[in-house]
Amino acid sequence: MKRFRENDTFSNVVQPSRAEAESDGLSLKGNWNKNFFKNDNPIVLELGCGKGEYTVNLAKMYPNKNFLGVDIKGARFWRGAKTALEEGLDNVGFLRTQIELIDGLFGQNEVDEIWITFPDPQIKYKRTKHRLTNEDFLNKYKKILKPKGVMHLKTDSEYMHGYTLGLLQGLKLPIEFAHHDVYGIGEHAPDQVVGIQTFYERQYLEVGKKITYIRFGFS
């Protein structure tokens, strides 16, 4: 409860109601650059950002881009929001919402990149509708991404990796990069993928789990 109360005071946290998302009632929709970041730099989302480690570290790596961590659990991203404020990172924000509502909170073609990092693979068939790379979610992402927008999926789940690759191939979407072991390919691994490790990612690596990555687009 203390973290929830503190989030309410953070200038870099936005917490819209479900009604605002479903009715296009959020004034920031279509105006994130102008009214939140106050610049014209590209907007990058991290969906299911957890503690915000990846969001914050991407913002440090790319100071000329704007980053928004998105998660429904405000007590988790409290840490990332607080760190960003303490370190004066004005290109970082956090949005508390359910990811299924994402297309109600951003305008068409407003976002440049979307990261999905270590999502729940939702292996049970009956839970497919919650898988963040299913076709319904992909349609939402396409709506808010710019025509040349980029999607990133980084996960420890070979199941999630394979499922997503198969879906993308079936939909004939362009896959720019894909590998089932990004730490095993040396200098060919993208810096933004191997240059940032979350707490849980380090734990996965310590027990020998491979980290997979896919970069793809819609056109």
The amount of helix comes to 25-40%
Order of helices and strands: HEHHEHEHEEHEHEHHE
Any guess at the CATH architecture? 3-Layer(aba) Sandwich
Return Rg in Å.
Answer: 17 Å
What structural class is derived from the secondary structure elements? Answer: alpha/beta
CATH domain fold name: Rossmann fold
How many helices? The count is: 9
> Would you state the CATH class?
Alpha Beta
Question: Can you characterise this structure?
Answer:
By secondary structure, the chain is α/β, with parallel strands linked by helices. It has one domain (2-216): Rossmann fold (3-Layer(aba) Sandwich). The protein has nine helices and eight strands. An eight-stranded mixed β-sheet has the order 1-4-3-2-5-6-8-7, sandwiched between helices. The longest helix is centred in the last third of the chain and has 14 residues, at 158-171. The relative contact order is 0.15. The model has no long low-confidence stretch (mean pLDDT 95).
List keywords for this structure.
219 residues, alpha/beta, Rossmann fold, 8-stranded mixed sheet, 9 helices, 8 strands, 21% strand
